[in-house]
Queue: 4 jobs
Job 1
Amino acid sequence: MRHPYQRTSLALTSVAVVAALAVVPFASAQAQAPRPAASAFGVNVQANGTNVVPPTPAVAVATPPGDATNTVVNVPASPVAVNGTLTATANVHRAADIPSGLTVVQQAVAGPYNGRGLAQIEGLGLVFAGGAPGVPLVSAALVRSEAAVVCGATPRFTANSEIVDLRVAGTAIPVNAPAQTLIDAISAALATSGVAAVADVDRNVVTQIAGGGIAVDALVVRILSAAGATPLAEVRLAHSEVTSAACTAPPQCSDGVDNDGDVRIDTADPGCHTDGNAANAASFDPNDNDERNAPQCSDGIDNDGDVKSDTADPGCHSDGDATNAATFVASDDNERDEAARATLPRTGAEAAFPLLGAGFAALAAFGFRLRSRIIG
């Protein structure tokens, strides 16, 4: 009779899931937390539910567009060690131009894709302290997983994984054999090696993500405690995932488009900088969803050259009084604001010009009457 945790299973075909289908989260806590558009990691080792090795190497792209990759070599952990070159890649693009990274198997949804998580381990060797000396519990020339999405009116998700030269406890496993043959081969290899009572191997574990998305682990290996059913360690190898966030419109300041028609885009657009200065890389806000520049009365800049800006500039107050905080208009896009100034009482030089004009007009009229009287 198999141990309750000794469940060797296989999914040989890729999985495609549309966003409208009901989905199941990995865990309730993970389902509640926002997930990135695409992510991947090489290995994660947990012991009694606690991370012994956090997802490593781990990459993620939170929102489109973006690309990320990371590589590490060998990951030691107790009671296991993962040897090999582990690479994680995440890509999310507005245009569907991401090709599939799988070379041995195909996805159910053909690419190119808008979003993709891709994990790869070259020269995998999973060494277990309780196994045969010098013999990896699991080894392979190549382990690779991919989760991807084609966006559209209804996003189409797909996930699959591939393994080259898989060996379990030193025994070659026919990865491309029928499902039952593969299950039997893994079970036999574990039994022959003497670790069947303390180890379990799952292949191509695909999970649907709550809210829209899909994930896949190429291999999940459980090391069981000798005393009972509690896993001593769970090792997830080559994990990739993609979510519906890959299909959301990116913020204007990160979409590579001139949204406000000023012939400046994203980092080059002052409207994408908190201080309105496109030359200041530190002030760039990639999450700003409005490329338009801030109104002159809220941009921190002296736009009219009077050595006063924003709240200190009379032109930004409806009554022209910079000392009156109640009249400040943050949305005013003209620090000069001639319209407001025209409503102010005219005093000093501003009032003198109209008075002088009226005087000259009166003198001119008097001169005309005088000339008329002399001539007449």
Note: The first helix runs from residue 28 to 32.
Job 2
Amino acid sequence: MTLLSSLKKLDWALWLAAIGIVLLGIAAFSDIGPRSQDFVNRQVVFIIVGTVLMVLASFFDYRILKNYSAASVAIYAIAIILLFITLASAEIRGVNSWIIFRGLTFEPSEFAKLAVLILLAKYFSQKHVEIYRTKHILASGFYVLIPAGLTLLQPDLGSTIVFISLWIAMLLFAGIKRKHLLAIIMIGTVLTSFAWFFVFETYQRNRIISFIDPYLDPRGSGYNTLQSQITFGSGQMFGTFFEEKDTHSPVLVPEPYNDFAFAAFAKRFGFAGVALLLAIFLFLIFRIGSIATRTNNNFAKLFSLGFITIIFTHFLINAGMNLGISPITGIPFSFLSYGGSHLVTLMIGLGIIQSIRIRSRIQS
């Protein structure tokens, strides 16, 4: 397969949808603070790096991951090692989520999500006929438990939820029995109750309590939720982007570049902009889903559907906390929020999706 033929087979509409969301994010957090230009410049660099890696990943034959267990296990092992290193790294804002090297920061949990997805897609593509066996459910759960536990220790509750959501979704895609799903839900309920009393930090419990009623502590644990709701609604229909002296209308939420980028976007572009953003996001999911449903390859199907699960879970959690309908967990809005680790990892994932599209037998 020549370079030119591979480039022709790339789903450029999928890439443009992803880049479109990134550019909307850049437009949203430009000129909202004294450091805005720095964030914009870095995000542009992340776009370039991510696009290059996406193209390179599309040239990589994904069937190596499908056919050779050693490849998926090696990627998973590297991710786990990086998560262990993270726990020994310096704290940033009270958490050990980043590895810092010569001024550059890297968040291993983002790479770990992709690594876990690859491993689960490989495992379930081999075992899907026997997914009813309890040993396969337990084995796959163990693979997820390690990175989920390590991210919870950082503590990063949001990424822990993503790992668990990905595991449950992959079980459903692989065809788990209803009784096993109910058992998982019951066990999960017990473990969540245990975590509430013995694992969660005080500030994490306060965030959940304040989510239920932020007015219980409007100047403390409920402050971010209330400010996010106010910021989100202040955009009204068309936002403040085209108004004069918009920089004098401050965005009141903390972290408007990442955790609360959706609220900052809503303020800048209003309901019309949010509708456009969601339309592009749904189009992106549709394009990936189209590849998943038309390929006759189990690994390709599972990887594509799992990738959708990752970005959609990020969307649900981030949008929910920006709207005040879910607890604040500090997780980015896929492609919209600032951040190199998340964006570059997603672009690599898109590259594997592109490789699937190029090399799989697509059913019409």
Note: Strands lie at 99-101, 104-106.
Job 3
Amino acid sequence: MRTITLGLAGCGVVGGGLVHLLSSSAESLRSRHGVRVELVGILVRNVARDRGLSVDPSLFTDDVTEFLAADADIVVEAIGGEEPARRIAQATLASGRRFISANKEFISAFGTDLQTLASTNDGVLQFDAAVGGSVPIIRTIQSALGGNSPASIKGILNGTSNFILTQLERGKSYECALAAARERGLAEDDVSRDVDGRDAAAKLAILAWVAFGIPVGSVKPRTTGILPDPSRLVRAGAAVGGRVRLVAECVALPGNRLTAVVEPVVVSPRGSFGQTVLEDNRVEVDLGWGSPLSVSGPGAGGAPTATSLLSDILANASPLARPIARNERAWVSVGDPRKHRWIIGADASPELIVSCCSEAGVPVTDVLHQAGDAYVTTGPSPTDRIDSVIASLRNIDLKPLRARFEINESEVVS
């Protein structure tokens, strides 16, 4: 029987879920893995708070120095934010130990520096739980790629926004959808990072680092969330027989260039992303095999993320294993030069939208109406021209919306 001593920073939805999981699965861990996990310290902001957990109260502390002094083989960070996460990570890795994080904003900002620190001191940095909840996408990419790079990574990376969009498709209001997400533990009080796309952008930057080796802080995805009016976005998708999903993608371009985008996309209801509903995530990696490597599962909530953290704890991690490709720094992050089809909507006459498109050099392929809005679909057009159309509509006090349009005629549902 092997004992793993564990320090846990943060005991909220995710950290508390991990504590509960360690308790409920203790017998399974002993019988199946030959492991006993012993908590030796829990860092929290409020020691007096009752978390409803069967844990020795003496393990809780609000003192970072005291927490770091505990004799922990592994330190798990689920506290969020930049500090004290950064201090904890640096101290753990500098001492040659394993540091596991579910903090995607933190890893997307400092992952490259932390990996260097880990490599220098024979420490181990793991962050599978930072992307995809229960979806083991990082480990899958590491196993599948070897020393190669994929053609693209594309996915639904935010379970909260996907849950909200699904509820809106089913006739709920945005307020009701958000309340249901919070009730199910899928959304925090401040949901802004989920709905404005920043959460998915941080996760995409991490995936680009793992898959392409580009320093994580160098990837700056062009980001458009589902705000300001998700209900109108959903109606726009329905107007053309599709479903709206917040899609993140990173695509390799000629000349070792990499473009990263997070934005609403109208997808086919019959396709894999259209069938990804509620809090599920899905990631598809194009490895040149014909069909993409696809991984899916719950992407939000305490239990899925806690399960991923436990998987990292049990992983036989090696200090020599690098979570990035050998060709680090070979790729350059650039804007999106590709042309896409789009749907553009506004609370205006269709003639006005068509006129703005014409002025920007955007070809219009169809005009539709629904629920007080007019919509046009476009031929292939670069993003900057669509930006120009949206700016023109806003300049005359309208409330325009746009989404990329990826449905073919054969996929449209009447």
Note: DSSP finds 14 helices and 19 strands in the chain.
Job 4
Amino acid sequence: MTITNEHRYSSWRNVLLLVALLGIAADVLADDPVDRVKALEQKLERSLRLIEQLTHRIGELEKKVPPGSAATATITEPSPPPERPSTSIATLQEEIDQINQGLSLRGFDFGLPIHGFADVQAAASSAADPLRLKGFNGGTLDLYLTPQFGNRIRSLIEIAVEYEPGTRSTAIDMERLQLGYTVSDELTLWMGRFHTPFGVWNTSFHHGANLQTSIYRPRFIEFEDRGGIIPAHSVGLWGNGKADVGAGKLTYDVYISNGPSIRDRELDFHPFTDADDRKMFGVNFGFQPSGVLRGLSAGLHGFTSRVAVHSASDAVVNRSHLQMAGAYSAYDAKDWEIFAEYYRFFNRDDLSDVRHKSHAGFIHAGRTFGTLTPYLRYERVSLDPTDIYFNSQRTGRSYTRQVVGSRYALDARSSVKFELSRTDEAALNQYDGTGIVLTPRSKYQRAAFQYSIAF
């Protein structure tokens, strides 16, 4: 049986092409469906370039075969392999090895993963509840991204899509946009929009409902557009870190941000630009013991800022010097979760120079039994009714609230919750943007159900 050299080299080209395509198919079938198209395009392009180089080399070898000496070739038994390959074949093998090495060092961009949370709710409350709940709602769609560019560069982006009761429309909010650089374990520097690092709750639980055990946050540290009376968000510079001290770790947060103001009886933390040159400064120092006390944390926190109070026409009618100092502790281990936070306010009106003292706090406790976590929470807020900082906010009055509920984990990424609460709000003469109005005492009950997922 005889074949021509042309047929023989053509067959080699076909074999190389077939092997390359089979390799691509095997790799693509092993990938996730999301990456198959991208992997196919990348590998096909590289394989075609390699086949092109091999074909070119084979063509050069064909030219080196003496004419007439190999017009035909007889295939009987394989001839003994040469002791060493020819110079052309050795060079070809070396180049193939270099190509393979180069390809193995190349990184692959599989895109930016998007994670998030979503929840749906049903609730009913008595007539005095400011939210007047009596039906179903779509909850919040919370998306977050954590692009990574190296070991030191860090980032966090969080976008929430939710219904705004005040405007009766769906809003898209950039809840967090923080870019950071890790200098060491002891220091990471951030810039952008972040959750103000006071206490434990505000930095542990964001807008993703499935993260926290309860349906609602403690009311006075709610997000600004939901009635919170202290800035839960900040826009500025933030440095944090931790250091080993033998018996545990010391943690700290130091930040400077745009100073808040009060408009339309609601806190405005100025996410775009500061209204004036008065900034907010804050610190948070904590300790996390190791050993048998692992899971415990305790610390001190505080912040200060000048806050402008605006009228309905957006004119500044007063300024308040906001000052807070407090303490917190938490235990999250052995199926227990316990949070206790205390806030003491020493505010001063700029116009009258009158000083006001107020305080707020809560204690939350939950215990997990398998997939069920029952919990209790008690909130108490006692605010000076003559403090312009508080009485110019819609929810800035003294109250107590008792909460009881349970969370049932359907699996690691979904849960259902049921919660009952009772709230007693004190009467208050409030500034409504035009003048002083009497807000009567109110008591109300609330029952809520929530189904939440993480993805």
Note: The first strand starts at residue 2 and ends at 3.
